[in-house]
Each structure stands twice: as C-alpha cells, then as structure tokens.
What we know:
Chain A: Belongs to the ABC transporter superfamily. The structure holds 2 protein chains of 2 kinds. By secondary structure, chain A is an alpha/beta fold.
Amino acid sequence: MTDDLLLKVTGLNVVFDGHKILEDISFDVKKDDTLAIIGPNGAGKTVLFKCILGLLPYKGKVIWASGATIGYVPQKLYVDKDVPLTVDEFLSFKEKDHLKVEEALIKVGFGSDNLHSIHRGSRLLGTKLGVLSGGELQRVLIAFAILGRPNVLLFDEPTSGVDISAEETVYSLISKLKEEEDLTIIFISHELEVVYKYAANVLCLNKEKVCFGPPRSAIDKTSLNRLYGDEVNFFKHHEHQHNG
Amino acid sequence: MRLTFLNITNISTMANTIFLILVGSLVGASSGLLGSFMVLKRMSLVGDALSHVALPGMAIALTFSLNPIVGAIMALTFAVFGIWYLGEKTEVYSEALVGVFFTASLAMGILITPEPELLEALFGNIENINLFDGLVTICGSILIFFGAMKLSDRLLLGVVSEDLARSMGVKMHKVNLAYLLLVGLVVALGVKFVGTLLTGALVIVPAVAAKNMTKSVRSFQIMSSVIGVASAACGILVAQSLGVAPGPIVVLISISAFLLSLLFKN
Lengths: 244, 266
C-alpha cells in the first residue's frame, strides 16, 4: 500500500443466503479524494459501505491506511418524535466536552445564535432529536461524525430524507468541510448531477464494478446502460445541463 | 407486661414495614430505570414475558429446598443466554424467541410447581420476603444501577442506530447480552415482590408514565425510577392499611401515575 493511499479494496465478495450481493469489487481511494459511489437500487452500495466499515462479513481484502479514522453518517435515521433524546445527549455519546460539541455544530452550519434559539425559542442542544427536520437531523449527524476528528467521512445518501431546498446545502457543507478539515470523502448517491459537481472520482456499482475513475471519463453510455438500462436518457439530460 | 409486649410487636411491625418499603423501593427504582431502556428499545413486553420464565426455576428451587429467588435468577440467566445465543446464531427476532421461552417455561412451571407455591409465584407475596431476599435485592439493585449507567450511552446509541454504534467500535452483541442479563435480574427481584403475573408492570408502567413527562433521557431515567420507588412505597403502605396484597396495589398506583402523566403529555 503506497503512502498516498487511504483505502485499498481488493476482490471483495459478499453473499447473503446464496445470493451474490457484491462480486469481485476492487478499487483504491487516495488521501484527499472525493469518491462517489453510484448505482441503481439494490446494486449493493450500502452493503459495500458496511463492508468497508467492518459491519458485515465479506470475502476479500479491505485495508485502511494506518492512522485512518472514520466518521460515518448513516442513511436516513428514523428517530421517533417521542424518544426523549436531546441533541446534546446524542452528541455527548461521542464527545463530553461541550466546547468541542458547540464547535462541531457551528461547523455544520448552526450559527452560535441558532444553538440557543431554534424551534420556537428552545435551544438546539435541548431539542429532541426526533423533532428536528430532515436537514437539521442530517447536519447533527454530520456534526456527530466530525467529532473525534476523523480524516475520512463516509456518507450513505447524504440527502435522503432531506427536502430539495436543503439538498444543495448539505452537499456544499460537505465540500466546505472537506476543504476546512482536510478530509477524504466517500459518499453514496443516486444523483448524477451531484456526482459531476462534487466528486473527483466515481465508482459505478451494479453488484459488480461497472466503472471507476473521474466522472466525465468513467461515466459513458455503456456504463450507464449497465447501471440503469433504459434510464440512459436521464444522463443525457444532466450532461446537457452541465455542458450548457 | 402487656404494654411491653405490645411495644415490641409495634416496633417489630414497624421495622418490618420499613424493611419491606426499602426492598420494594429498590425493586421499584431498578425496574423503573431498566424499564426506561426497554421502552426506548421497543421491548416493553419482554419483561412481562421473561417473568414467566422464573416460574420453573422457582419450582425447582422449592423442590430442592432452596430459596425461590435463587431458582428464579438461575432460570432467567439461562433463558437470557438462550435467547441471546439463538438471536445471534439464527435470524429469528429476539421478541419471538422470548415468546417461545416464556410459553415453554410457563407450561413447565405450571406442571412442576406445587399448588400453594404456584399461587405465591403467580401473585407474589412481599410479606414473605426474608432477610436473604432483602440482601439479594439490595445487591441486585446496586448491580443493576451501576450496570445500567455503564451501558447507558452504548445502549442508547444502539437505539438511534446500531450501525452507527458498531462503526464506532461498540460491540453491540455484548452490550445487548449484558443488558438482557440485567433485565433478567430485575425480573427475578420483581417476581418475589409482585409475582410473575404483574412483574411486567413494574418494568413498563413507570417508564411509560415518565416518558410522557420528560424531554431528555436523563430526566426520563430519573423520573422513571422515582415513579417506581413512589409506587412501591405507597403501594406497600396502602395495602397494609387496607389489609390486602401489596403487589396489585403497587401496580395500580403506578397505573394512576401513568394516567396522570397523560395530562403532561405534549
């Protein structure tokens, strides 16, 4: 493993109940890279994430560079409104130092004023996790991930459960964090537009590796056909938007 | 001479009442505290179901002239390991496994428990609690309190997202086993107090009532324990003055706390 590599995945295979979920996946992630993982529903994107996080059994090799610390933002969390867990209590699972918690919340876009006045006057820190909007919950989860100073962040569909107006905010936040915190970013997305805009490299996945490399060269008509079949028109629409 | 005898009787009755209230309050506090996690983990009825597992343990203990509480703890520990092991190795939900263990134990328990003891096991009798039971309750409650506090962060993080917890290196299977063992222990303590049929109420009702009134986990845990203690202490006193069994009164008082809590629900 060379010095500039952060993650090396070789020959990754995952089988559940006799069904192949991932087949012979190999790719590298360099330090400071922004890698997008795209693919249709059921392509194994989340399974791949869970394997590189060590949450699922697999065959093959997943090697992280020594010193890699991972912050993970899971896909859509449903926290019931009546679960009396406050933002403060949730973040304290990871960091007890209040100053660091407030610093992380400010970094994810809650102004210091917001910490003290949000949701009809009640403080963000004292607000229950379950009553936050999708966008707010996502930013709290990102704050949770950056506590403990990780050098790589893994996002599983960062904008699922977030309304359209907040989507852009979440991605620009991710790219701002990348610059400020010197992070490597790996995210799962199904939005090609976002991949072109924010990712330096893309891994196209449909149970097997379909393409890998910088989005503009890796994503072509053949790879899109293997990913989405007839939905290839969708790609043309977006390509047109970006070229225009 | 007569006066002295009455005084001694009064003093010993009073000491006995204080002892019962102490034991009852400890059971109330520890079941209230663990109940707060069970409600959040959506395992409300697991305590109720597990309480039936105690039955054959108590019967076997009685057969060998052992203290029933020892039998209850052993049967529950065995069942918790069984439920946990099968839950890890097969993909059957632990709720379903608890159901299997509980009905099997109930069937066995009814067959092998002698009838007079069966009534006591089903309905409990705090007045029969002896010094040994009291000591077991005190030690058990201390263990439950410290155990629950130590597991608290990891358990609650697991409630939010097991993946998130595991990605931070939390061994959720170990945390869940330790937690289930504490639930087994609290159920064993409660069975002697209110009986297998009502133990579930001790774990669940104070927690559900507290959840209606609180806005943070910390206050939820404290309130749940306080309602548990208050129900147990008031229940024992009310039952003594009415001359009825304390178990059902304790449960009914906690139910009234739940009804009151509905007024505070936001």
